Amino acid sequence: MEVRSIYRYAKISPFKVREVTRAIQGLPVSAALDLVAFSPKKAAGLINKTLKSAVANAENNANLKVDGLVVKEATCGEGPTMKRMMTRARGSGSRILKRSSHIRIILTDEIEIKKRDKSKKAKGGAKKPPAKKAPHVTAPKAAKETATAEAPPAETSSQKSEI
Predict the structure, then answer these.
(1) Calpha distance 66→32 (Å, rounded)
(2) Taking a C-beta distance cutoff of 8 angstroms, is the pair 144, 151 a contact?
(3) Less CB within 10 Å around the terminal CB: N or C of the chain?
(4) 57-109 per-position pLDDT tens digit
(5) Distance between CA 89 and CA 148 in Å, rounded?
(6) What is the pTM of this model?
(7) pLDDT tens digits, residue range 113-153?
(8) DSSP letter for each residue of 26-74
């Protein structure tokens, strides 16, 4: 069963909220709450509030256990934008856009929680074979060309007789 919670008209840009919502998507609720609780962003506090509301909806309205809940979807849409003016040089003005957002979180108990075994990967995981080295190849033509280019040309017997 799916349970949702929506925080409307949050006074934060959706661009800033999406970074945190993408991080919690697909996580179990306990892991998502931990991630959001220790994040230093303002958006994390707003998402924490919405996530706790969704958990409360699941417990009270749908009679679901918190242990089996997974964040199925965490999205952020644009809300209305307040337009303000700020004075600039030479009597002109520029526009300030104060953006707001709608945060939506959907929890479900239908997705299985997959736990990772850290001990297997760290200890007995398959090791990669060492990289093969390329065989050492010398270029005899290149060596001869550089040697002839560096050395002065040899004098022939006909040149010696003229001098």
Answers:
(1) 12
(2) no
(3) C
(4) 999 998 999 999 999 999 999 999 999 999 999 999 999 999 999 999 999 99
(5) 70
(6) 0.67
(7) 776 666 655 555 667 777 777 777 776 665 555 555 566 66
(8) TSBHHHHHHHHHT--SHHHHHHHHHHHHHHHHHHHTS---GGG-EEEEE
